[in-house]
Structure formats: C-alpha cells, structure tokens
Amino acid sequence: MVTNVFCLDQTYLQSLGVRAEEWRVKQSDTDEWMRHRQLPEDLRRRVREYNQYKWIATRGVDEESLLKSLPVDLHRDIKRHLCLDLVKKVMNAKMQFLSSLGLSLVN
Questions:
Q1: Cα→Cα distances 34→2, 21, 28, Å
Q2: For the chain, how far is it from start to end, CA to CA, in angstroms?
Q3: How far apart are CA 106 and CA 90, in angstroms?
Q4: What is the pLDDT of residues 75-94, one digit of tens each?
Q5: In angstroms, rounded to a whole number, what is the distance separating the alpha carbons of residues 34 and 67?
Q6: pTM > 0.90: yes or no
Q7: What digits encode the pLDDT tens for the residues 23-75?
C-alpha cells in the first residue's frame, strides 16, 4: 500500500513538473509576442498576472477542455459540485437580506 501511495505521489509530481515546464514555455512565448507587438509594460504586467492567477487556480489543467470532453450529465454534475458552495452562500445572503427587510422567499 505504501508503495502504491509513493508511486501515485511520484506520478503526480512528474505530471505537475511537465505542466509547469509547459507553462514556462507558454509564458516565454507570450512575453516574446508582447515584446514583438510592443505592448506597454502595464498591459504586459496584467497579462502575466492573469496567466499566473490561472496557473495557481488550475495547476496547468485546461478545465474547460476536460469538462467539454465529458458526457453532458457528468459535466453538469461536476459543475454543480464545484459551484454548490457559492450557490448556498448566495441563497443564504439573499435570505438574510430579505429577512432584514421583513420579507421571506416563502410566502
């Protein structure tokens, strides 16, 4: 069992390393393109920040492509799972707001 866990960890780290290298190459290509197009430094910084944010959020996995490759029902269930906490927070905030006004969602 310990060997299996070690192998899974090693595979994950290798995969992460490959994606990190792909990200570095993509970032280098993007920097070169921005220089070629003579983008102002402020725009270059914003592009780099966006790319860094996207890397941190997804670790290099193209989530949209991954989800689009799945059957519709599985895609929907995963999206629901990923967004469920946000939906609950919005509903809770809405109920608190309505309650503060002396109203409710259920009449």
A1: 47, 20, 10
A2: 56
A3: 16
A4: 999 988 888 888 888 888 88
A5: 30
A6: no
A7: 899 899 999 999 999 999 999 999 999 999 888 888 888 888 888 999 999 99
- Domain boundary assignment for the chain: 1-61, 62-107
Residue type, 83: C
**What single string gives the DSSP state of each residue in the chain?**
-HHHHHHHHHHHHHHHHHHHHHHHHHHHHHHHHHHHTT--HHHHHHHHHHHHHHHHHHTT--HHHHHHTS-HHHHHHHHHHHHHHHHHHHHHHHHHHHHHTT--S--
Whether 2 has a pLDDT exceeding 60, the answer reads no
- For 14, residues 6+ apart whose C-beta sits below 8 A from its C-beta are none
> What's phi and psi for 59, nearest 5 deg?
55, 35
Token pair 């290099």 in the structure block, residue: 60
